[in-house]
Design goal:
heterodimer, A: 163 residues, four-stranded antiparallel sheet, B: alpha/beta, 22 helices, 20 strands, 16% strand, binds flavin-adenine dinucleotide, binds thiamine diphosphate, binds magnesium ion
């Protein structure tokens, strides 16, 4: 099953490599990983997406908790939560294709953030499935480049993750 | 007057504050300032080894036999890489240690400087934690944290990497009384509701069993375990790492379990209906094939300080996260408060069954052999030392015979590398044990292959006058490898014969020690007695043993606990 794990860790050089090293050393899958400092500059927040059996995911959270620099770990998939991912797509946009792409971007509530006479760069956020849907909808042959951040997640309602 | 201290001075002051009496190390460019400070004081005594691997093993043996944090000091680059085997050995067996390594100056890091290696990166997978000290202002707190992390929770090695310029710079010194980390809160007390559930389950058992591991030793909980087992009257087995956590000569002891465990321990483990696992991690060498283990129905209580040890390989029914010693105190209290006792009728029937298994006499060997049987050497060693020696071992058949035939009644007497299985561990570990226990009798049971992996330490032993007794069970083979080749590879003994062996007697003598070669079974006891009479000399005893002897029982890889090969 797919799990989205959120963690707070010390914002220190090397902390990220401990997490990445743990996953490779123990053979756990990482589908995506995002990390950045929080409003408290001493802390970083990481979101990890992994697809594994529940037993393995239980081990993953225990092993993450064991890392000295990891302050809190929560498996967001255990409760209601929101997930968002940012994607930037550069597509070839010429002639009447330009209108069609513009229309699709509107439907997906994206933005065109850079324009040349031959291309558009589109910004799109949403759950990963929405980004996949967009890519499946536009003409594949027009895609020049895609960049995705991987999922970030947060609990719904009052649920918070604090140090 | 300048009251600031250099990083090197601070390092030594911190060690003094931690009450460190011995450190084991080897100098080099990046740690010269630290060595200079060592030279100027005499509270922290430095033991100069002959190879950094041995420094770490010696610190490890010191820690295992004393429950103090072991400390090693190595230089950058090759000093650190040589130390890796030792660090990984300690990590796998959860031994509290602090390793201080020198690093190239901060401005040179990342530039492929002379003797630069990414110590943090290279040790990361085999330490509990590590630190690179880039700012001298953080040196004292970092060292404090290192000792704290190494010795609390599930213990383990912590590396502190100190760049040369940091050891030279100056700041005012103050050693923190204590440290707290917002991300590290090891528990010791177990959840009392869980302990209550455990007590209930224990009293319902008809075929109960206690399975105790290295966590009992690490937690200094042998007295509590002994009280619990005797109070309940249950059978108790110990893992290789747990030997001595419960007295081997007690009637409730069924010996070691696992791949080379006793028939009775493995059968009881397989057929019990309530299992109390205490500071043990259901290693693959212990339960064999987990599927086979679950052919039988049983309820499992698991006490461990590390949540990730619980339900890792085996799902359990009552997990209790906490220190063995605290949890057992509470469990014993709760059991005593209850009116009910375990069902004596079924317990009696269970013991009757266990005694039948015991009668199989699984450790028997040919006592009338005219060639020395290795088992006999260990048995005689046990008798001659009255069961009261510190025994270290290397890795192989001799390790298993040591575990099977030396009856450990006390914790911290059996010092071996279980998790990593590091050949070369025995001799340097014995040095550390002797430093921690200057009056104790210390013997290293080894093989002719293992001993050659750290043989250079005979020189260290001479320098410090360590009166170790080295029991070399010389079968001219990497016996454990040979045994597998005999059983599973059609007797093709690929590269397991030990050719071109040195004359160990002369070798020992050339290092200034006493050497003995023993070839007759009738000479074993006399030679041992003579060796142990030489209280201030290291004696290297080369026992020429039966080349074909195998370790039994044995659970072949992939097989279950009750599928042992028996002699
Ligand atoms: C050649 C060879 C053959 C071997 N054959 C066997 C064999 O036949 N039988 C056998 O048993 N082993 C054997 N081993 C050893 C085996 O590989 C493992 O090292 C060993 O079984 C692990 O022991 P353990 O389960 O007691 O765990 P340890 O490695 O000692 O781990 C201790 C456990 O206790 C926990 N703990 C630590 N401190 C505390 C505390 N204060 N409170 C609570 N819990 C704590 C830890 O979290 C950990 O889970 C062999 C090794 C070699 C090299
Ligand atoms: C450093 C290292 N290399 C290889 C091994 C694999 N190994 C395990 S036992 C063994 C043979 C040990 O031979 P010896 O020391 O003579 O002991 P014996 O089995 O003969 O008693 C080997 C090579 C190991 N455990 N450690
Ligand atoms: Mg041998």
């Amino acid at each position: 099953m797919r799990h989205i794990i959120s963690l707070l860790m010390e914002n220190e050089a090397g902390a990220l490599s401990r997490v990445a090293g743990l996953f490779s050393a123990r053979g756990y899958n990482i589908e995506s990983l995002t990390v950045a400092p929080t409003e408290d500059p001493t802390l970083s927040r990481m979101t990890l997406v992994t697809v594994d059996s529940d037993d393995v995911v239980e081990q993953i959270t225990k092993q993450l908790n064991k890392l000295i620099e990891v302050v809190k770990v929560v498996d967001l998939s255990e409760g209601v939560h929101i997930e968002r991912e940012l994607m930037l797509v550069k597509v070839r946009a010429v002639d009447k294709g330009r209108d069609e792409i513009k229309r699709l971007v509107d439907i997906f509530r994206g933005h065109i953030i850079d324009v040349t006479d031959k291309s558009y760069t589109i910004e799109l956020t949403g759950p990963g499935s929405k980004l996949d849907a967009f890519l499946n909808t536009i003409d594949r042959s027009t895609i020049l480049e895609t960049v995705r951040t991987g999922a970030s997640g947060i609990g719904r309602g009052e649920r918070i993750l604090k140090a | 007057m300048d009251t600031d201290l250099t990083g090197a001075e601070i390092t030594i002051r911190c060690l003094q504050e931690e009450g460190v009496d011995y450190i084991f190390g080897y100098p080099g460019g990046a740690v010269l300032f630290i060595y200079d400070e060592l030279f100027k004081q005499d509270k922290v005594k430095h033991v100069l080894v002959r190879h950094e691997q041995a420094a770490v093993h010696a610190a490890d043996g010191y820690a295992r036999s004393s429950n103090k944090v072991g400390v090693a000091l190595v230089t950058s680059g090759p000093g650190v890489t040589n130390a890796i085997t030792g660090i990984a050995t300690a990590y796998m067996d959860s031994i509290p240690m602090v390793i201080i390594s020198g690093q190239v100056p901060t401005h040179a890091i990342g530039l492929d400087a002379f003797q630069e290696v990414d110590a943090i990166g290279i040790t990361r997978p085999c330490v509990k934690h590590n630190f690179l000290v880039k700012d001298i202002a953080e040196l004292a707190t970092t060292l404090k944290k290192a000792f704290y992390i190494a010795s609390t929770g599930r213990p383990g090695p912590v590396l502190v990497d100190i760049p040369k310029d940091v050891s030279q710079q100056k700041v005012p010194f103050s050693y923190p009384e204590s440290v707290s980390l917002r991300s590290y809160h090891p528990v010791t007390k177990g959840h009392s509701g869980q302990i209550k559930k455990a007590a209930q389950l224990i009293l319902e058992g008809k075929r109960p069993m206690v399975y105790a591991g290295g966590g009992v030793i690490l937690s200094d909980a042998a007295p509590q375990l002994t009280e619990l087992v005797r109070m309940l009257g249950f059978p108790c087995t110990n893992t290789l790492m747990g030997l001595g956590g419960f007295p081997a000569t007690d009637k409730h002891s069924v010996g070691m379990l696992g791949m080379h465990g006793t028939y009775e321990a493995n059968m009881a483990m397989q057929h019990c209906d309530v299992l109390i696992a205490i500071g043990a991690r259901f290693d693959d060498r212990v339960i064999g094939n987990p599927k086979h283990f679950f052919n039988e129905d049983r309820k499992i209580i698991h006490i461990d300080i590390d949540p990730s040890s619980i339900s890792k390989r085996v799902k359990v029914d009552v997990p209790i996260v906490g220190g063995v010693s605290d949890v057992l105190v509470e469990l014993i209290k709760q059991l005593k408060a209850r009116k009910t006792k375990p069902d004596q009728v079924s317990l009696k029937a269970w013991w009757k069954q266990i005694d039948l298994w015991r009668a199989r006499d699984c450790l028997k060997y040919d006592r009338a052999s005219t060639i020395i049987k290795p088992q006999m050497v260990v048995e005689k060693l046990y008798q001659v030392t009255k069961g009261d020696a510190f025994i270290t071992s290397d890795v192989g058949q001799h390790q298993m015979w040591a575990a099977q035939f030396y009856k450990f009644d006390k914790p911290r007497r059996w010092i071996n590398s279980g998790g990593l299985g590091t050949m070369g561990f025995g001799l340097p570990a014995a040095m550390g044990v002797q430093f921690a226990n200057p009056r104790g009798a210390v013997a290293c049971i080894t093989g002719e292959a293992s001993i050659q992996m750290c043989i250079q330490e005979l020189s260290t032993c001479k320098q410090y006058g360590l009166p170790l007794k080295i029991i070399n069970l010389n079968n001219r083979y990497m016996g454990m490898v040979r045994q597998w080749q005999e059983f599973f590879h059609g007797n093709r003994y690929a590269e397991s014969y030990m050719n071109a062996l040195p004359n160990f007697v002369k070798l020992a003598e050339s290092y200034g020690h006493v050497g003995m070669k023993i070839e007759q079974p009738g000479d074993i006891e006399g030679a041992l007695k003579e060796a142990f009479k030489l209280k201030d000399r290291l004696v290297f005893m080369d026992f020429i043993t039966d080349q074909t002897e195998n370790v039994f029982p044995m659970i072949p890889g992939g097989k279950g606990l009750s599928e042992m090969i028996l002699v």
